[in-house]
Amino acid sequence: MLLDEDLTDLCDDILAGLPRSDQRRRGREYVRGLLLARGRKSIRNIAAISTEPAAEQALHHFVSDSTWDWMPVRRALARHVTRLCGARTWVLHPTLIRKAGTHSVGVGRRYSPGLGQSLNAQHAVGLWAASASVVTPVNWRLHLNEDWLSDEKRRRRAAIPDDAVTQSLGACTVETYLELGAPAGELVVVDAREMDVEAVLRRLRAAGAPVLIRVPAGLRLVPAAGSAAEPAGDLAATARHQRRPVFGLTASPPVLAGTVAVRLPSTRSHDPLLLVELSAPGRREPGQLWLTSRGDIGLADLVRRTALVRRVTDDLEATGDQVGLRDFTGRSYRGWHRHVTLASAAHTVLAMHSRPEPALRRTS
Question: By its UniProt entry, which PANTHER family does this protein fall under (predicted)?
Answer without folding.
Answer: TRANSPOSASE (PTHR33627:SF1)
